[in-house]
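Example S7 (structure tokens).
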């Protein structure tokens, strides 16, 4: 006999309640003798019958309370012989499943994850009927899949079957901490165990962080009933001639383009071994391979790598996932999970750009923004990638910046306080601003009002002037070897340096950097060593400053063959608030702004996870707009949000790639992990069972029968009460007569 809720046995104390009530009533009833009492006395036989009925009624009431308490404790009867008969206490078991990418490694027709699920099923079968089980998924972030522990075998099986596909790395110390939390908060049995199912790789154990392990041991010892910990390392045989190809570091020349724009996609293909790799790589757009994009890769020896590059044109407005994938075929890949890498780009309508002209031209192409405007909106281009608007400095305000993506301040001497405040607020909220100084620029004003000793939004302090605006001699040239941003890599031709290095600057300001938070970054320098282009993130936006102008007075840059592509790339970079920002990490919620019309009562949007599972994102309507929020992102990879207007939005969840190179746990590693607490590696001691219970015995839950018995007892109590009342009434009448 065992109990699922043994604590409810305390309800058995309620059996004493009818007895206490009986004794209390007897103490308070007075006895009064009077002359006619002799005529009301019952016969000895009647008195005996009534007393027996009273005791039977009292016993029935006590039995009803006892049955209810037993039913609440959920007793389970197990037939057969074994050590649990006679009192082995039920336990709480937490199953921790490693979710690193190595668990998906194929070999012998199976994988460590498939074997782990089979182990878990066997483990559950070995447990006693009252043992409760919780499940924890150990991915980049540990997450409880089944919590609190349950004795319901169908719930346990459903939790194990619903485990998402593995990917990325794992954090087993964090998973152990989550298991300890579950046992401390939800454990209800006096004994407990934690079982870890992993692939024997060293990476998920985070052994380079001894402080975390010390903290874990302290947490373990603090628990009221510290659990024993068993580790089962599961490995599958891998073909020694197989080659594990990995695609990594997919990158796009820019993340924001206009319809019809060309984008370059690159990625690194490397061979993790053990055999030589000879595969084909292909360009993938929105999950479909681009016809004709396949190119051969290899043969690559183990450890070798190569960079592949593709170009494509995107015309459909919206979010797109583009990347590189190893095509099927060739040698068998034991880990197809890492055969693709992608990046999300956005195709937007013509980008709105505001040009603030500080020096209007008296003749064509002599103003400070004339060359910029022509570069952004070429004459005769029926579908330009930019929509440029030219303003005077005094017309710049918050209303003028509404809906704009990029602001260029070209040779502006100063701004009105209203315009200066509008720019500062607009950049903080995600705008991109470029300051292009010229002969009218008041350096003292900009340093005081926009730079503010590094506290303002201007990325660098404007220093002394180098050269003369009226001179026609070169004082410096851009230095191609210093070009550090994707802006410049995108305009390089066939790997050759940009032609911008041949452009002459007649005059330029010395840009001075100070320590800021976040720090400013020099994206390009002049051959004199001075910064030419400096950039800094400001709130949700970014600001940049050039050392010289972009007109004919400042140099020969407008006549350079790379001037137009350089300006385009720079505008797109500034329009994207964080082109180099890291994608969402596993476990963090995905929040996506929705600009499609939604029905008022709609509360969810369909989402397709990287493994192909269907999920739902919740709709949040706030004062800032409508957002789709996916709270659980356990799987690294590409998530697709299906909007009501048949459009799709893509978001990327990336994981640590440390799992790519497999390093098995050594004997010394195992000893380090097991030292100081009851942690055991099962394959080190096969004589020890995975769990301490004997195989499960046929069991019968008894609580339903107890409830029925309590109902029957209640009916008996009602019948006895009525019968006793009738007898007392008849006896009283008979005595009076």
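Recovered sequence:
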């Amino acid at each position: 006999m065992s109990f699922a809720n043994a604590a409810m046995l305390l309800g058995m104390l309620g059996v004493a309640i009818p007895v206490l009530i009986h004794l209390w009533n007897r103490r308070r009833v007075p006895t009064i003798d009077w002359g006619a009492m002799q005529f009301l006395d019952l016969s000895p036989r009647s008195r005996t019958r009534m007393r027996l009925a009273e005791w039977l009624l009292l016993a029935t009431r006590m039995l009803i309370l006892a049955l209810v308490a037993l039913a609440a404790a959920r007793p389970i009867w197990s037939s057969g012989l074994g050590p649990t008969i006679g009192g082995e206490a039920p336990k709480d078991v937490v199953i921790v499943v490693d979710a690193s990418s190595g668990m998906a490694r194929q070999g012998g027709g199976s994988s460590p994850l498939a074997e782990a699920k089979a182990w878990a099923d066997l483990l559950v079968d070995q447990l006693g009927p009252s043992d409760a089980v919780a499940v924890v998924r150990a991915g980049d972030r540990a997450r409880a899949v089944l919590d609190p522990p349950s004795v319901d075998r169908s719930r346990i099986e459903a939790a194990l079957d619903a485990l998402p596909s593995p990917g990325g790395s794992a954090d087993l110390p964090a998973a152990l901490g989550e298991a300890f939390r579950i046992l401390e908060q939800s454990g209800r049995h006096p004994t407990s165990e934690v079982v870890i199912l992993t692939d024997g790789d060293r990476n998920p154990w985070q052994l380079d962080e001894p402080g975390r392990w010390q903290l874990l041991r302290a947490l373990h010892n603090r628990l009221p009933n510290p659990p024993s910990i068993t580790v089962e390392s599961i490995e599958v045989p891998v073909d020694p001639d197989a080659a594990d190809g990995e695609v990594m570091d997919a990158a796009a020349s820019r993340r924001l383009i206009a319809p019809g724009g060309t984008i370059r996609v690159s990625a690194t293909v490397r061979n993790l071994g053990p055999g030589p790799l000879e595969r084909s790589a292909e360009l993938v757009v929105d999950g479909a391979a681009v016809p004709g994009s396949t190119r051969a890769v290899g043969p690559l020896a183990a450890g070798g790598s190569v960079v592949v590059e593709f170009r494509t044109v995107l015309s459909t407005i919206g979010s797109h996932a583009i990347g590189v994938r190893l095509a099927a075929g060739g040698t068998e890949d034991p880990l197809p999970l890492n055969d693709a890498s992608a990046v999300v780009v956005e195709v937007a309508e013509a980008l709105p750009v505001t040009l603030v002209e500080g020096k209007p031209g008296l003749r064509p192409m002599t103003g400070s923004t004339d060359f910029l405007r022509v570069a952004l909106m070429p004459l005769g281009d029926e579908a330009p990638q930019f929509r440029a608007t030219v303003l005077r400095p005094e017309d710049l305000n918050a209303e003028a910046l509404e809906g704009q993506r990029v602001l260029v301040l070209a040779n502006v001497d100063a701004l009105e306080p209203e315009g200066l405040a509008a720019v500062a607020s607009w950049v903080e909220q995600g705008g991109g601003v470029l300051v292009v100084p010229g002969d009218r620029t008041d350096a003292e004003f900009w340093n005081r009002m926009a730079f503010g000793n590094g506290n303002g939004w201007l990325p660098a302090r404007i220093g002394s002037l180098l050269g003369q605006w009226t001179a026609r001699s070169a004082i410096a040239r851009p230095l191609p070897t210093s070009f550090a941003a994707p802006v410049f890599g995108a305009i390089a031709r066939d790997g050759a340096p940009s032609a911008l290095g041949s452009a002459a600057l007649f005059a330029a300001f010395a840009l001075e950097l100070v320590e800021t938070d976040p720090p400013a970054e020099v994206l390009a320098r002049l051959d004199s060593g001075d910064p030419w282009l400096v950039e800094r993130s400001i709130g949700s936006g970014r600001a940049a400053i050039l050392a010289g102008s972009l007109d004919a007075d400042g140099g020969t840059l407008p006549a350079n063959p790379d001037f137009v592509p350089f300006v385009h790339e720079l505008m797109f970079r500034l329009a994207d608030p964080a082109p180099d920002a890291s994608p969402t990490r596993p476990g963090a919620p995905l929040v996506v702004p929705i600009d499609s019309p939604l029905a008022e009562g709609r509360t969810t949007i369909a989402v397709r996870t990287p493994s192909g599972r269907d999920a739902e994102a919740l709709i949040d309507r706030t004062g800032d707009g409508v957002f789709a929020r996916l709270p659980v992102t356990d799987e690294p990879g590409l998530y697709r949000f299906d909007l009501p207007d048949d459009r799709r939005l893509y978001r990327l969840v990336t994981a640590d790639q440390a799992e790519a190179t497999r390093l098995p746990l050594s004997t010394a590693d195992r000893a380090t992990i097991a030292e100081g607490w009851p942690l055991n590696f099962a394959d080190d001691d096969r004589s020890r069972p995975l769990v301490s219970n004997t195989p499960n015995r046929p069991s019968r839950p008894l609580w339903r029968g107890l409830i029925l018995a309590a109902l029957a007892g209640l009916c008996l109590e009602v019948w006895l009460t009525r019968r006793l009342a009738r007898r007392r009434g008849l006896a009283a009448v008979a005595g009076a007569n």
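Notes on this example. The CA atoms of residues 467 and 507 lie 4 Å apart.
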